[in-house]
Amino acid sequence: MKKLLDYIFFTRPVLFPPVWTILILGVRAADAREGASPFYSTGADGLDPTFILLMFLATCLYAGVYTYNQIHDIETDRKNGKLFFLAEGMISTTEALLITVVLDAVAIAGGFYISVHIGYAFAAVLILGILYSHPRTNFKGKPSHGYWANAFGHGMLPFIIGWAFLDSISLEAAFKSTPYLFGVGAIFLNTTLPDRRGDEDAGKITHGVRWGVKSTMQASVFLVILSVILAQMSGDYAYLISGLIALPFFIRAARSQKLEHITLSTKIAILALSAFACIYLPYYLALLLIGFMVARAYYKMRFDLDYPTLR
Hints:
This protein has 15 helices and no strands. It is an all-alpha fold.
């Protein structure tokens, strides 16, 4: 049982909620004009089975991206004192590769089974994930490449995947995804700051390493403001309100340059947006709460860590 839990948490399920949230809001945006929830089968009380399948496949897709990243980030993770699975030998590299291949194969095959549009969007996420982590391309070690890979892969594309559940990919979908493109970009910049020393020691040049805390946080504030403006232009009031809630926390973090304020600004942004996804899809709240409690119990039992936290 312990080994099975290690395999599950090796996929980094704590990182799934932001992707799930944006995907849900993408589905909702595609059907907003109809005034009815797109998550339920016609004439049925339960969730649409195809939507459940989409969520499962998207989870497999991003899990594969995260496991592949860890395979190529063992030394950095060891220096930063996190993600112990490969760095501490809890899971072998062979096991990690097998898990990654299975997750990717299931996701891509299932994506094309649902629709060609979703299949191509899934493929784009997978390609970005490979380019981000593979040593030859090494997007993760290049500030601009790493930024855009994360902004597209975790911001724009999850929204477009959700949109494609009900509609075809279009210029309208691309425009409506731009708040998420830049909002996730702001969050990504924040995440490069806690690991600056370990990344620099491992030769990984991120925004945090190259530009330091002050400039990186100033860029994050600018991106949040830009994303709020785009949300207003696209009529995405869930994002607009969430962005306005998060903005003061980003400004405070930029002024103080304290790590706890930087981390809090990221969490507020994610929680605010997730709250709107829960309004649109009440079942989602139960998934988030159960996932949070299970993760807390696992990390406490396995590593004696109080993780994840809302503080």
